[in-house]
Amino acid sequence: MMILSNILPTFEIANITAAAVFIFFLTLVNVFVAPIIKLFAFPINFLTLGLFNSVLNLLIIGFVTTWINGVDISGNFFSTLLTLILISLSMSLAQSIVGNYSD
What we know:
The protein has five helices and two strands, in the order αβαααβα. The chain is mainly alpha-helical. It has one domain. 78% of the residues lie in helices and 6% in strands. The protein has a two-stranded antiparallel sheet. α2 (16-40) crosses α4 (51-67) and α4 crosses α5.
């Protein structure tokens, strides 16, 4: 997350503590809340052939960002969307790496 904060001008993390808290809460929401939301959103996800799942991930990241002081996503719509997509991709990459070790 700190690397993305240095690369993207629209994504700002104040310090390492804010990054750790952001990752912690994002993990908690992805483990406990996201499966429930995705269960209720299954019909829409089915109709859109899984594309709505990406929208849900972006909404979850945006929601967690509003909770944490020191983490800010600013800019216009397209720069914010690009920032959220890159955060989502980095989360997917980390999950695939961790998933390989847990098998």
